[in-house]
Specification:
Radius of gyration: 15 Å
Strand order of the largest sheet: 1-3-2
Structural class: alpha+beta
Number of helices: 4
Oligomer: single chain
Order of helices and strands: EHEHEHH
Shape: globular
Largest sheet: 3 strands, antiparallel
Number of domains: 1
Helix content: 40-55%
Distance between the termini: 23 Å
Length: 100
């Protein structure tokens, strides 16, 4: 069985910001996994290294995720409804392992 590889597309401070960004990506049809150091989660830390949360997506969705996050950070998504089909178009245009 082929294991899927995941890639970190962003790193943020605290659960709240991670949940917001994870929800944004999931709303566009992307798979998301949020990873935080166990001690940071147990103690509810939002600052420092223990408060960092990594946002991961499958490798084949990383380009689409980064593009969505860039638009989010640039403020380009305010009042815009994103279409999950647009993510599929981005993924289709990304080079695959056979293209390298």
């Amino acid at each position: 069985m082929d294991k899927e590889s995941w890639e970190v597309v962003d790193e943020v401070s605290g659960d709240l910001q991670a949940e917001i960004l994870g929800g944004l990506l999931e709303a566009q049809g992307l798979q998301v996994w949020l990873s935080q150091e166990g001690a940071g989660r147990a103690y509810g830390l939002n600052l420092g290294e223990l408060g960092r949360v990594h946002i991961l997506v499958p490798n084949h969705q990383a380009g689409a995720a980064r593009q969505i996050l860039e638009q989010y950070y640039a403020g380009e998504l305010e009042g815009v409804e994103l279409d999950p089909r647009a993510v599929e178009e981005i993924e289709d245009n990304e080079p695959g392992p056979d293209d390298e």
